[in-house]
């Protein structure tokens, strides 16, 4: 049974890689390298497939599911509560903590779902898949780095700062360059990064603040809950 | 707002939006861009009150012009020179028009997304994906339900804390932050504990025992079948037009776009396809008026 799932997982990975290759081939030959946005949009969606597939096939038990839903809802409520201040979003901080306390995959799913759901309130747009991928990756990598370890405050804050600045910020800036017109060039990309740096810095600093404030509140409570009800 | 299109089966609506968005992203052909822009604008006008439409126009038109100029100042390809910038770089008409074209594309996409947000509500989205992805859709609907619940709870906690002098609206900044953190901490504990109760309750009612069914009001009827057939036929027409070079366009060095039979065929199919919601609504309005006169 287990090897069956593993086999199918490898099969899926190969399929996704093939799909990306075919997409790139179409993009360079049929679309003559012009449809940057469409190509990358489809690729962002393809990249999320393995995570969703894994989540579906793990058959999460109902307590884990509800726990995850709770954290997603808290992240969305947090974003709504601070929406009066631009870029002051606690979403990434909460998602990183979820990735650490549960597991990396849960971090990705929670991040993607939080981005999707908060956009039900703030409006879906061509940026939705990018935000999903960005927050998901921030949670996933956070989980990979700190999961099952004693989390020290300083490395956590450092990770929060740089993950938001480099992973989320650069990904979203690249996406908005692809969304907007003009030729794609290194100079244009650099100009986009520079113009976005203030927003990204505010977001990164907000994430650090929220991580610092919420670390104890969320992490120790989730640990306690897992101990109390023998989750995992 | 009496929009018949949004009362159709969600699969049809979703299919329509996917195709229309892909088509908008796919082509830079000026005539196709204009068709996409106008039809998305028409449907927006149908769905939204006019105050919002005016607000949207006030924002979109300057943005389109700005993006056109932006490209003209940064890209200097093209043969028709308009004038020279102070730093000696030429400003060309092609670059300006290319910028305008991409901005029109962006505006059309933006308006399609406004329509999408109004028509494809959360319940339709969950209905569509609930069967294929049961865990993910349950996760989404659980979180959607928790959001209003947590909001009311945070209000309750804040009120209770205020009564014992620990509100987050008075005192200096440090005290306010501390109190906010405490309120959030209480909310987290409450949410997590009640989450476990929800989970246990779900389990005792048989979650995971068998296949989950869900209530829905959508039916797959004759009109859906007819509409899907029509959409596929129109798509075929479009596909043929695309295949025979109906949408080829080049902006640099000079603007060249196809002006042949394939383009005209593609244009007609694209216009009908992207105006489908407006046509359906118009037909319904006509029938309604007609019946009223008869009686």
Number of strands of chain B: 4
| Overall tally of structural domains of chain B | 2
Structural class based on helices, strands and sheet pairing of chain B: mainly alpha
Mean pLDDT of chain A: 83
- Tell me the β content of chain A: under 5%
Summary of the model, kept short:
The complex is a heterodimer of chains A (232) and B (295). Chain A has helices at 2-29, 36-57, 62-81, 91-101, 104-122, 128-146, 153-179, 186-229. Chain A has 232 residues and is mainly α.
Describe the model.
The complex is a heterodimer of chains A (232) and B (295). Chain A is built from 8 helices and no strands. Chain A is mainly alpha-helical. Chain A starts with a helix and ends with a helix. The relative contact order of chain A is 0.11. Chain B is mainly alpha-helical and 295 residues long. Chain B folds into 2 domains: 5-125 and 224-294, no CATH class; 132-204, no CATH class. Chain B has helices spanning 10-26, 30-47, 50-74, 93-119, 122-130, 134-163, 173-204, 222-243, 261-274, 276-294, and strands at 81-84, 90-92, 249-250, 256-257. In chain B, helix 2 (30-47) runs parallel beside helix 9 (261-274).
List keywords for this structure.
heterodimer, A: 232 residues, mainly alpha, Arp2/3 complex 21 kDa subunit ARPC3, 8 helices, 0% strand, B: 295 residues, 2 domains, two-stranded antiparallel sheet, 10 helices
Question: What is the topology?
Answer:
The complex is a heterodimer of chains A (about 230) and B (about 300).
Chain A: H1 2-29, H2 36-57, H3 62-81, H4 91-101, H5 104-122, H6 128-146, H7 153-179, H8 186-229
Helix pairs in contact in A: 1-2, 2-5, 3-4, 3-5, 4-5, 4-6, 4-8, 5-6, 6-7, 7-8
Chain B: H1 10-26, H2 30-47, H3 50-74, E1 81-84, E2 90-92, H4 93-119, H5 122-130, H6 134-163, H7 173-204, H8 222-243, E3 249-250, E4 256-257, H9 261-274, H10 276-294
Antiparallel strand pairs in B: 1-2, 3-4
Helix pairs in contact in B: 1-4, 2-4, 2-9, 3-4, 6-7, 8-9
